[in-house]
Specification:
The complex is a heterodimer of chains A (525) and B (353). Chain A is 76% helix and 2% strand. With 525 residues, chain A is mostly helical. Chain A is extended. In chain B, strand 4 (87-92) and strand 5 form a beta hairpin. Classes of the chains: A mainly alpha (525), B alpha/beta (353). At the A-B interface, helix 18 and helix 19 of A face helix 5, strand 6 and helix 7 of B.
Chain lengths: 525, 353
Amino acid sequence: MTAHTPGGEKTVPPDNSDSLASFKEFAGHRGDYYGRTFLRIQQAKLPGLHLNTSALLGGFLWASLRGNWLLFWIGFATDMIAAVNLALVHKYDLAAVQAATDGKDFLVQRYDGWSDAHLQAGLVLLFAGRLLLGWLADRLYYHHYARWRVNRSLPSGQAIRRLGIGMLAILFVAPLTIYRASQFAPDQRSCIKLAHMIQDGQQVPLKDRFDCWTISEFPTLVWLPRPLQYAFPRNDDGTRSIVVKEPSGKRPVNLNNWLSEHIDQGINYLKAFYGWLFDGVTRWIRVLLNAVEAVFVGTPWMVTSLMLILAAVKLAGSRMGVFTAVVLLYLALFGFWQTAMSTISLTVAATVICVVAGLPLGIWVAKSKVGAAVVTPMLDIMQTIPSFVYLLPAVAFFSVGKPPGILATVIFAMPPMVRLTALGIQHVPASTKEAALAFGASPRQLLLKVELPLALPSIMAGVNQVVMLSLSMVVIAAIIGAGGMGFIVVDALARTQVGRGILAGIGIALIAMMIDRVVQKVNRL
Amino acid sequence: MAIHERQVIEVQGVWKVFGERAEEALQAIWQDNLHKAEVLEQFGAVLAVRDVSFAVEKGEIFCIMGLSGSGKSTLVRHINRLIQPTHGQILVNGQDIGALSAAELRALRATQIGMVFQNMALLPHRTVRDNIAFALELRNTDPFTRHQSANTLLETVGLQGYGDSRPSKLSGGMQQRVGLARALAADPVILLMDEPFSALDPLIRRGLQDEFLSLSRTMDKTTVFITHDLDEAMRMGSRIGIMRDGEMVQIGTPEDIIIHPKDSYVADFVQGLSSLKLVFAHRIMEQPEIYEKNHGSVADADTWPQAHPKANLNSLVSLIVGQQCPIAIRADGKLAGIVTKDALLKGIQGQSP
């Protein structure tokens, strides 16, 4: 008990025998040391540079003895990385000797440099890692003790059998890892060649086979016969027929080649027999895009810019009008007018499709359990897949150009529209809906007069998200020929014309800021 | 038949069990006479209303009083079928509302039944006027008519000039006036009031209660009024139904309930109530013959203070203060009874002779 007396007299030190006994019970071996240390930790009096010498010297083996697996993995990882670096020193030394005998001086120099670098890295890692472990040891071990107090089944004290687990881990991990570091691993192609040689019944050195199985790419376990080749030539009367051909090669293929060939053939089949569907979609997107482009691209720049500035002033105030004017001036002065307007057209077209399709979908998700069960996983997938990947199916089914670009954009940008619409509707208070029903609202009236108006802020936030996501995706879609500002950036990247790329990038950023600010202002009204 | 015509709402043997296995649970309740807790344990179902029957007459204010969780809000939602009964029947104007189609039900809700909610549940994106005219709008009434009747109602509830404000700009009491006006907009026969004044502070609550009472007298609506506040129930209700755990424990006039509580639960409830304004002379008066037998002649009864049998104890106290003689109670000019000072004091204590 702390007896605190006023007047600055010395306070009686607390009786700590209880704590000490518990610490000692936990630590077992070397209980005095751990009791003292833990007491200091509890009193927040542990020196900043306190190190546990056993942990410093014993490394991860000390941690495994003590049964603290976090410390074990920290120690094991640092020691392992150090060991790999030292093994690499050996590997490059050998390579340097080999290069010297081959008379390739530039290689000798390079390998020697690498060897030195790995030596330094290995030594630094070894010492720094051990110091870290020594420093962490008592601090983390104290947390281990705190958990053990709650759950007595956790490992405590020191036990030789736990050392066995640590040793086993080393036996399993260390030799191969260090072997991999000390060897030049064969690449995948040479391993496939090796596999073919084995299939042909040739003799192969055991070491090569071992290397291919252990330290190269994951070995090819599954070999499948080459799939048949399908073609869908057009007949004279316009119909398609299916022609089957033997595969070109005889050798079996791995899983990847097998499945990707099947996917290709599936897509070809769909394109051959359902082409009208994809052509129809493309045509309707074209129609929409043409209508939008007529406004932005087809109108003289004076008219368009005046319209945009007036719209900004009306929707978001005079300051936004000035900002819009500045942005448009930048685009015009640097010769981006047509391309910028083309980008804005693409964005507007994609946004229109997203809103028109996303709003009913969102309502469906909010209203129906089936809708939520069907749409939500699709949205999850759409949002998880990186934006680049959307370009592939778009190209596969709709070829290149603006319509597939817009399609990829729509898939990328639609999820927030659906989600925020559903969220907005679900968050309409049940009591408000009940009141509307009590006054005789039909389901349609409930939706139109209560739910959608109350969900409007959420829906508008969704529209804002859609616009911004569309803009970013439209730029990426330039890779598949959607044109616009993105094309300038892609082109500049390909030709390493940094300056041109930067100017176009600034233009895109300015367009994004302009649209974002205006839409946000509109939302707040 | 004549009685039937006067009964606007009839609730007949209504049971409500919430949960996936409601039907099954109800069968078990009937067979094994299960309690609420047992139903929850065995079927995961909540027994909210247990065999409730009552009828509300035209122009009456029927109060349903009970603590939270007693099923009163659930019960009132059966009357406009916001909740379907698991078993039982509800008649509105003699018509079984369980048999109505969706469209007929919407018409009934929009034209016959107005509802006021505890949390107002106004639409924040509409003006006060558009909120009031909501029921009319749902029936596709033209904007002009909507405007006119909303303005009339704004005046009725004393909110002139607030028609173009948003509900959020109004205080809680004013918002509930809007809620009331909205319920009255379609000129319904029935008003369902689900704890309308519970969320308001006491002074405003009292003012609104008085206003509603006087409104109700002039408009002749049949009202079902839900409350958890016994004082409010006594003030508002022409009759009161007391609910506990989904059951209707007692139905009666405020006076009935104070003087003859049916069980200890109700007695506990009414214990703290003052009977001054809720008990009337005819309850405590002695018949003239009995008075003559016990106390003496009633010959000079004409000189005593005079009161009507419906006079409450409070007014009797005012009459008798400073007097030595008892009070003569007269109905239609005839001597109906006599109230002595002792009887009055006992009556105030809550005892009837």
